[in-house]
Amino acid sequence: MRRMFFAGLAGLCIAGLSSAEVPSEPGCAAGDRKACFETGTAYAEGNGVAASMNAAIPFFLRACDRGMPQGCTTAGLYILDGAGDLEPNLEAGMHILEAGCTRGDDKGCESTVGYLTAENSPMADRGKVVDVLIQGCKTGSMWACGWGARAAQDGYGGKYPDMADISKAAIIGEMGCEKGNLSACVVSETLFGDPSSPLFDAEKSLEYSEVNCDSDIAESCNNLARVYYMINELELGTVAYERACELGMEQTCAEAKSFRAYLTAKAEYDAAEAGRAATINGLINAGRYGEAVNTAIYQMGSANQVEAAVRAASNAGAMSSLNTQDLYVVASWFSSGEVRRIADAEMAARGTGLEGTFGTGTNSAGAADARWKELYGSSIPTTRASSPSTPSTRTFGAGDAAAQVRDKYRTAHCEMAGSNASAAVCRN
418 Cβ partners below 8 Å, 6+ apart? Predict the structure, then answer.
């Protein structure tokens, strides 16, 4: 129907054509839409022929009718304005201008929005703006993707509240982002990344946050860091914080520095602990359980390795190989739990127990050390090889809701395209 309308309008205007001919005119007659547009431009600007808008418009219409969106936009604007000897035709002009937008022309979309939103425009109709822009975005208008996503998200910052529709925002936001429009990507991140939103989608939130951070949007890097920390992907989170800091988000710099220092210290600790574990495992494998516990206490100061050695001795039925002095240290290091139970049982089996040494009231910090000094003349050994404490960071909330969000993000991170299933957080 519209093709016939365009053709009819072109026929009405054709009477104004000059007898002169521009070089591109035969190509238009042969069906070349680009040639039609060039011919229309020549008549409009008077290039090689007498300027005539009456002659130009039919060629723009032909370009439009043959699938060139710029032809629709140009013809629509001229018809709306009543260029040349034509009377303004608002209805016809708007139909043709909208066709320029829905076929993917940026100028057509911008101009259409201008007419549909202007308060003094007789063609104002804000209710159809987003739908027109969705079609324009679909056919390639980046302007339509960006402006339409923001309009549907929140009425373009509240300027047009009657346009807000988060369902349509999701459609045009995702479509626009896929086509490479950064504004649409930001809208998508906002829509899908809000845990309180009915559109919350952990996988999409991660995807769009990553896209936007890679596009140097500091706030997206910050959001990405918070998600990564939430699911205990500390290295990825630190990298994201560092990127946000580099992009000028100063409040992330301290966190980036703190976590980088922690990760460095943790890596050093893990490497040292691996060496300690190798030593203790060697003693355990040789059946030297008492020596393993003693080495873990006095040479390493490692509660982790003491635990490993005590458990191994217990499983092997070799607790008798531990000396009583070392059992006292074990009891002071482990106030509760399985290792403490094993130590208590061994002391009781020896008839020594902890009564009168580290018993009731004397196994607390300070009291235990005082009793040790009484017995052995020095302070009780303390753990030295402890893992660095994880710095605190901001999260998305607290309680069950936060836990559910965390689980959703973890699942998304581990299962989304480009699977991270091999990551430590995904194996646990």
Answer: none
